[in-house]
Structure formats: C-alpha cells, structure tokens
Write a structure and sequence with these properties.
The structure is a homodimer. Helices cover about 30% and strands about 15% of the residues of chain A. Chain A has 8 helices and 9 strands.
Chain lengths: ~210, ~210
C-alpha cells in the first residue's frame, strides 16, 4: 500500500471555500492526483474540463470547490460542471492528454461516515458551528489517509467533451435595452428580446418574479 | 456621481481564478456591492444563493469566479448557478434579507470593449499570454471606475429560490457497486442502478463513452 503522505491544502483554498470541512480537501486531493496522472500543471487559462458526479439535494458537494481550486478548472471559466449522478466522484478531461475519473472508495465513505463531524451535520449544524477539535479530526483523517485507500481511479480513454464555439457578438434587447450575447437572443413577434423579457425562462426556476 | 474608489481584490482570489483579466474583478465588485446592499457579511457556510445571468459560448464568464469569491456563494456549496441569459449580470439572494441584481452598464461594456486586451482575446490569445501592461490597464480601469458608472442595480422584492430538501441516504448501485445518493438511484428491471449504469444519462452530454 502506498505510504500516507500529509497533503497540504493552501490557506487560500480554505479562504475561498469559506468553512472547514472534510469534503473540500477530498476534492483538492482528487484534483492533485488527476493533474499528476495526466501529466499537466494546474490550468491557469482554459482548455481543460472538470466534471463532478455530484448533484443537488445531498451533502458532500464541497468536494467540487477543492477540485476547482486544485486543477484551476473553475466554474467561472466554464471549466466545471455537475453531471448530477449523486456520486462522490470527479473527472478531469484534458484534450490530447486524456481523462481520468476518481471515485471516493466506498470503504472510505463508510469509515468517514462514522466521524462525529457528521453527527453534527445530520442535525443541520453548519460546519463553522461544529467544535473545532471535531472538525480538525475529520480533516486530518482525510489529509493523512493514503491515496490508495481514498480513491478508485480509472482512465477514460474514449471520454470527450466540447463547449460550443464562442462569439463576442451581442445585441441589445428591444424591450429592456440591456446587452445580450447573440446565442441567447430570442425573437418575439419579430423583435429581438432577452430571455426574461421574452418570458422564455425555464419553468423549473421560479426566480423571475419581480424582475420586470 | 459617486467618487471612484480603488477596490482591492485579495491575492487569493487571483490565485483561485488562475489568470489576470478584467471580468473576474467586475464580478468581485458586484459581490461586494450586493453584500453591502443586503446588509450581510461574506457567507462562510450556506443559506444564500448567487445567480449569474451568463451562459456558454460567449466570453466574460470569469465574472462568476469573482462573484463567488466575494460573496462566499461557491459552486461547490451549491450556492451558485448560471441562468443562461447571456447577460453580464449577477443576482444575490439571501432569504429574509432580499435579492439584488447588478448589471454591468451597457455604456461601460462599450467603453471596456475598446480596450486593447480584447483585441488579443478576439484573436483567441489567452489572458496569461497577453502583455502584462495591456492587462494591467484594463484591470485598473475596472478597479478605478466608480460603482455608479459600473453597475445598474435593482432590488428584486419577489425573488425566491429553494434547493430541494437534502438527504444523507445513499445505496449501492446493483451493477457497479458504487455508492449513489438516493435521489439519483434509478430502477432497471427492478434493480437499483446508478445513472451511468442505467444508461439514463442526458443525451446532450456525450461524455460517457469509455466509462463502463
């Protein structure tokens, strides 16, 4: 078995994430392994993609913040997406280098689940309100456990993904006057409008009340 | 007009983002304004939501990284989503406090678009490869311009949003044996399977080749 190695998560990653918890460093470690196995450095610009198999309506998604920070595949640069499979797994895809998937081993998930930290979380207590020694213990468990015990890893030789071609072209909505990138301009009785003005919003998101 | 005020973006935010560009600090400034106007501090745990009106297939999405960093509404904590309207705008929603929308004024978008930085970007040159003095000039423009010149802001009194109720319950996929949060378990001939094993993946994403 590979020897345990104390992994450091830089202070700025904790700062970004906002609280101390075990799943952010799990994602950070996944990212470090993925970069190494694909033979690339952290990505400063674009050209690689991270996928989280996490979804919504369950815990442990903090993994994604660690993975973004380690790999440089940030949500803002459109380099991170959720696949919504409800699994504690991440994929890193670097075109011409390949794709790797890391899954947090079920045995480690079982072991982690026994930690007192999760007794608090299941009561709805936020990480920043959990006693520091309880949090420290579970974070140390994550940082001190060997890669081999943490992750099942597999290369995905046929994996592929592309973003649509980008364009700087934009125009003004004929109703509200705001700029809209062309891809998202919609037509209403012959006039170009933005999606909210056109009332072409997704029905799943009821966030538009009050936006007019 | 409000006086220009030199806004500092902390070093760790640049570190997270990975390169120097003007839209990350625009998002950061949007986040700072949103927090102040709603009367809340940066959110370390959960309980607030950021929405970007950005989509895909266009530039300037880096705004989202700055907004996440400033507000603490990170993608990993499920506190940030795209609305895909193709607009340079962000919304911060804090239940019981309200929601605020900030749009980067069209006049400022026009002014920014004349910067040499975008001549490089339109040629497909990555931010890290653009001469530092060109990048510095456009970033300084963003940091030195007053809030009033940058943003149109509006409160959204009826705005509402909720995540589905969370659950820690999970079970193992009967095919691959990996853990799946219950919400994402699917049935295949009476057996519980994960979405990839069930081949119930979204057809828009062709990323699954090679995952079996």
């Amino acid at each position: 078995m590979d020897p345990p190695a104390k992994i450091m998560v830089p202070d700025w990653v904790w700062e970004f994430h906002g609280h101390t918890c075990p799943f952010m460093p799990i994602g950070y470690r996944m990212g470090i392994v993925a970069l190494r196995e694909l033979g690339v450095d952290r990505i400063g610009d674009h050209g690689a993609f991270g996928f989280s198999e996490m979804g919504v309506g369950h815990p442990q998604t903090c993994m994604m913040d660690g993975f973004m920070a380690a790999t440089g595949c940030t949500y803002g640069k459109l380099m991170m997406e959720r696949l919504n499979y409800g699994k504690v797994a991440c994929i890193l895809f670097v075109p011409k280098k390949g794709a790797i998937r890391l899954y947090l081993k079920s045995e480690f998930q079982d072991r982690l689940g026994k930690e007192e930290f999760f007794t608090y979380r299941k009561k709805g207590i936020e990480p920043s309100q959990i006693p520091a020694e309880v949090t420290r213990k579970v974070v140390d468990l994550v940082l001190d456990t060997s890669e081999g015990e943490l992750f099942k890893q597999e290369m995905l030789p046929e994996f592929t993904f592309n973003r649509p071609r980008g364009s700087f072209s934009k125009m003004k909505c004929s109703r509200c006057g705001e700029y809209v990138f062309e891809r998202y301009v919609r037509m209403v009785e012959g006039r170009p409008e933005c999606i909210p003005c056109a009332e072409y919003t997704q029905t799943w998101v009821n966030v538009l009340k009050g936006m007019q």
